[in-house]
Design a protein that fits this description.
The chain is an all-alpha fold. Helix content is about 50%, strand content about 0%. The chain contains six helices and no strands. The radius of gyration is 25 Å and the shape is elongated.
């Protein structure tokens, strides 16, 4: 049975022609992959610099008062609430925005008093959680508006 001819010339083997076609297809697909990857990266903005160190320090006092009983003194969790620091926490929230975390916190915490803290207090608590998860502080205050943080993952 004769193999199809894909390139002219009797001295080019079928295997070499197939390798050439595969490479050509890969090179042709590269610009598309770069565009798609670049678009996905553009949808994600760094968390570093979103809060100030002073805001995180304020958040620590609020956390101790309103959250520590359930989530533990070191944000490591307890039977009453999940950890808010460490690998498990970061893995759970990796694909979600800081705005989503702020909104979930506002809508559900503190237990029995959800939504009763001010926007600034919720933002300070989230700043403290970010700080404890090794995200770098900046000069700006983390806003209490979840929509403003929707791109930050």
């Amino acid at each position: 049975m004769q193999q199809p001819i894909l390139c002219a010339g009797p001295d080019i083997s079928y295997d070499r022609r197939m390798k050439f076609i595969v490479r050509l297809a890969a090179v042709a697909a590269l610009p598309f992959l770069l565009i798609v990857t670049g678009h996905a990266l553009a949808q994600t903005v760094s968390i570093d610099g979103l809060y100030s160190l002073d805001q995180a320090n304020d958040g620590r006092a609020l956390y101790d008062r309103d959250c520590g009983t359930c989530h533990g003194a070191g944000l490591m969790g307890s039977e009453a609430g999940p950890a808010l620091a460490g690998r498990a926490f970061r893995d759970r929230w990796r694909s979600r925005s800081v705005g989503e975390f702020l909104e979930v916190t506002r809508e559900t915490m503190p237990v029995g008093r959800a939504g009763q803290l001010s926007d600034a207090e919720y933002a300070s608590i989230v700043a403290y959680v970010l700080n404890r998860n090794h995200y770098e502080p900046g000069d700006a205050l983390l806003p209490g508006n979840a929509d403003a943080l929707s791109a930050n993952r």
